[in-house]
Amino acid sequence: MPQHRDELSHLRARCGAHGPFFGADYNPEQWPREVHAEDLELMGRAHIDFVTVGVFSWARLEPEPGRFDLEWLDAVLDDLHSRAIRVDLALPVASPPPWLGVLHPDSLPQTRSGGTLWWGSRNQFDPSSPAYREAARRITRVLVDRYADHPAVVMWHVGNEYGQLSHGEHAARAFRDWLRRRYGDIDALNRAWGTEVWSLGLRDFEDVIPPRDTPYIVNPTLELDFARFVSDELLDCYLDLARIIREKNPHALVTTNFMGFFPLADYGAWMEHVDVLADDHYTDPADPATRLTASLTHSYLRTLGRGRSWVLMEQAVGAVNWRAHNVPKTAAQNRLDSWRAHAHGADAISYFQFRQAASGPETFHSALVPHAGPDTSRFRAAAELGEELAASPLAGQFPGSSRVFFVHDWDSWRASAGRGRVSEALDPITQNEAYYSPFFRAGERVDIGPSSLLITQDDAADGALADCYDLVVLPHQFLLRPALVPVLERFVGSGGTLLIGPLGGVVDQDLRAHLGGTGGGLLDLAGVLREEPWPLADAVTITAVDSATAQVHDFVEVLRTTTAQARWTMTQGPLSGRPLVTRRELGEGIVWYVGGLLGQGPLQAVITEVAAEAAIDLAPLPEDVELVRRGEHVVVLNHGQSLAHVHLGGQCVEVPGEDLVIGRDR
Ligand code: GAL
Questions:
Q1: What is the spatial distance between Cα 632 and Cα 644, in angstroms, rounded to a whole number?
Q2: Whole-model pTM?
Q3: For residue 22, what is the enclosing H or E element?
Q4: DSSP string, 277-314
Q5: Of 314, 489, 557, 658, catalytic
Q6: Is 279's C-beta closer than 6 angstroms to any atom of ligand 1?
Q7: Which sign does the torsion angle of CA 342, 344, 346, 349 carry?
Q8: How far is the CA of 352 from the centre of ligand 1 (A)?
């Protein structure tokens, strides 16, 4: 598969789309034929040109094992084609029909405590179950044989939000095979897992079981390897079916919808296997921080795709139904959400779902066509947005390169969570967001992705990663692979600025502690030594070199400078006199280390200073204003109620409340 071809742009060009695709999940199996006719008419009115069909239609397509009912889908696809609406056709394998569980109870997932997850909802399959795998392949072959050449079908949507796991016997067998491939022999596994502790020595791979209910804390490397296995096994489910599609049509575009920062799948490893990246993102209109989360998550997709355009596969137009209190988006919020994603490179803006379900668990989830029908402000606003996006000047534009790279290693995140750790106050996702906040507030674009991307880029740039980025940030590099250290050293040596957050380099890829206080070499770069971590009972005062004071809360590390200078020092409590924030000049560059949880004010101040060293100006935008650059365009979103003024390209631009402006700044 070509790695860097922007398949979505090619597809849009082939389809003659000027703006991004605009669409929704379309579940015609829930409605009678006469409603389908109205659907088509309404899709036309809403400028919809892209729909994902039949994500949960398995029981309708295969009511009994091996008996297929496809005529209704033939008609749906033909109708959509007659209106030039392109189809992302789902392989409906996310939710097997009840008969699979009846005939093959072992296809049902097992919980850690050995309980069964039954049918009656959705997603009840064990990814390692042979019966499930075979049934999924069978329906895939049938759909691929019938629709691979259908002119409406432009993309294949494998499964949905892959994120299932099981702790039963099938998982145990597959996990053992995975471990055999990873370690080769049981001694290597015993060494990696540190099984001398608590008498866990394993005689053979057959002794391994997935993490299940245990009397006390489970071996953390077993947990981490199981998490890695689950991600790989889900990827294997996807690849199993993608292969069937590609065998029939090597040019087919195959995707599946990601879920941003998702704990059960390492998208850094999946990204090579999807032709078009797709993500589902549900902002929470009741939470002002939701904008930053969305911005960072879209940045992640953009980075994983190396700048290629991607699909916002699902979002809600109004309310979801799975939060405790489902505040709906206003039309203005929905419009700004969609433009944000588009400005971050989403060239298909799609929703869950087209028509609001009249029954079942999602009856109260919003859709483009609500229960009240099309004569509603909800539908009219959606149609206006469809029309507006169709004229967007942004589609197909390469986002442009970022000056800042945030490292987010999925297994580091997974390694730092769970029982037996230092403090739950240190959450990697929260740390990512806290470190991103000053960049977000300034409208400075940030790439965020796995360290493997930096390492690859370092190789490609022949040791001159500093030519690609000015600032690299490791908000929470708990797990550190030794290979990253020389890359960062070269980066800093040739002029880069490096910012490292707390608990950097604590363990290696097997969750073994890096000994000696140097964080596996990471802290050597910073010119500090860590003596021990120190969760705090109470906040303590810290003082900066310029005598400013602030508080550090929840967590610090006991640091000692070796070659670094202290910039902030603890001036209260048992660690008074210990450095907290340090700076070291190394070669042509600079390394900063932050050894604790700073409140947002002091953290903003530190990051602003660090960025200034890399000649990045983080002057904040007006409150409630968000700015995203794409290509030569600057999209300014004003989430506030009142008029905002923003300086762009030497001019003062006015952005009305709850509105946006697209400008240029050069
Ligand atoms: C997603 C799912 C959709 C729909 C949506 C509701 O997780 O993929 O099918 O259920 O949530 O918000």
A1: 22
A2: 0.97
A3: strand 21-26
A4: -EEE----TT-TTHHHHHHHHHHHHHHHTTT--EEEEE
A5: 314
A6: no
A7: negative
A8: 7
> CA–CA separation, 643 vs 660, rounded Å?
11
Cα(314) to ligand 1 centroid in Å equals 7
Q: Which residues of 327-351 are buried (b: 16+ CB within 10 A; e: fewer)?
A: ebbebbbbbbbbbbbbbbbbbbbbb
Active site residue 314: yes
Collect contacts of 7-10 with beta carbons under 8 A, ≥24 apart. 7/253, 7/275, 7/276, 7/308, 8/276, 8/308, 8/309, 8/310, 8/311, 8/347, 8/348, 9/308, 9/309, 9/347, 9/396
Closest CA to ligand 1's atom 5: 352
458 lines ligand 1 (CB under 6 A): no
Q: What percent of the chain has pLDDT over 70?
A: 99
How deeply is 30 buried, as exposed, middle or buried, from its count of CB atoms within 10 A (0-12, 13-18, 19+)?
A: middle
Nearest CA, atom 9, ligand 1: 352
Quickly tell me which residue has 């890829």 as its tokens.
509
Ligand 1 pocket residue status of 57, Cβ below 6 Å? no
Task: Check pocket membership of 329 for ligand 1, CB cut-off 6 A.
Answer: no
Q: How far apart are CA 602 and CA 517, in angstroms?
A: 26
3 state SS of 560: strand
Read off the pLDDT of each residue in 547-575 and give the average, rounded to a whole number. Answer: 97
360-373: pLDDT as tens digits: 999 999 999 999 99
Give me the DSSP letters along 49-65: -EEEE-TT-HHHH-SBT
**Is 278 a pocket residue for ligand 1 (Cβ < 6 Å)?**
no
pLDDT, tens digit, for every residue of 9-31? 999 999 999 999 999 999 999 99
102 C-alpha vs ligand 1 centroid, how far in Å?
Answer: 25
Tell me whether residue 531 is one of the annotated catalytic residues: no
- Please identify which residue in the block is written with the tokens 């049902």: 108
What is the pLDDT confidence band of residue 463, given thresholds at 50, 70 and 90? low
Task: With beta carbons less than 8 A apart as the criterion, state whether 506 and 532 touch.
Answer: no
Q: Ligand 1: does its nearest atom lie under 6 Å from the Cβ of 281?
A: no
